[in-house]
Amino acid sequence: MNENIKIKVATTADIAGIIKLQSENQLSQGGTLSGELNQSQIVEMMKDMPQIVAYLNSEIIGFILTTSQAVHSNRNVPIVNAMFASYSGINTDSYIYGPICVNETQRGKGVAQQMFKELLHQEPNREGILFIKSDNASSLRAHEKMGIKKVGNFNFNNAEFAVCAYLFSSNED
């Protein structure tokens, strides 16, 4: 990984960069993100759990966003509800991992793995649950390399999704 890349817990100062990268990677822009979060939703998530960002110089080149089940329960997100109908986790402390996004020019360079390592440092001994569109082979491979396992699948809006989960203890870095 490029030594100029810095991984850290996001603050409100990072929101504009997260939203910019998220917008550039929406389906409508040729990306693979299945949803779009607004500023107030990201702020709410930041107050609840660590959000991880990757910087190259002064630009955000990656992020992992997370949501507790408590915060999710205040929202109606049909695709996340479909994920939980397929696999609800080992307990109510399990959290939603994602979305995750890495700038197209930085993919394949270990950025996602470094952000994931920081998330595990921040949230050890907690199960994370995520979904990946089944035809997104590169994301499925990247998450498998991180030790994340497929635990189910579901169909949403005529598309197939894999449900994946992980639980690493703090000594499994």
Short description:
With 173 residues, the chain is an alpha+beta fold. It contains six helices and seven strands, in the order βααββααβαβαββ.
What is the topology, as strand order, of the major beta sheet? 1-2-3-4-5-7-6
Report how far the terminal alpha carbons are from each other.
Answer: 17 Å
Number of helices: 6
Q: Give the CA-based shape.
A: globular
Oligomeric composition of the shown chains = single chain
Helix/strand-derived class? alpha+beta
Strand content: 25-35%
Biggest sheet features: 7 strands, mixed
The beta-strand count equals 7
Order of helices and strands: EHHEEHHEHEHEE
The averaged pLDDT comes out at 89
Whole-angstrom Rg:
15 Å
Q: What percent of the residues sit in helical stretches (DSSP H or I)?
A: 25-40%
- Low-pLDDT segments: none
Which labels suit this protein?
alpha+beta; seven-stranded mixed sheet; 7 strands; 29% strand; globular
Structure notes:
This protein has helices at about 15-25, 40-50, 70, 80-85, 110-120, 135-145, and strands at about 5-10, 50-55, 60-70, 95-100, 130-135, 150-155, 160-165. With about 170 residues, the protein is of the alpha+beta class. The model has no long low-confidence stretch (mean pLDDT about 90).
What is this structure's SSE topology?
Layout: E1 5-9, H1 15-24, H2 39-48, E2 52-56, E3 59-68, H3 69-72, H4 78-86, E4 95-102, H5 111-122, E5 128-133, H6 137-145, E6 149-156, E7 159-166
Parallel strand pairs: 4-5
Antiparallel strand pairs: 1-2, 2-3, 3-4, 5-7, 6-7
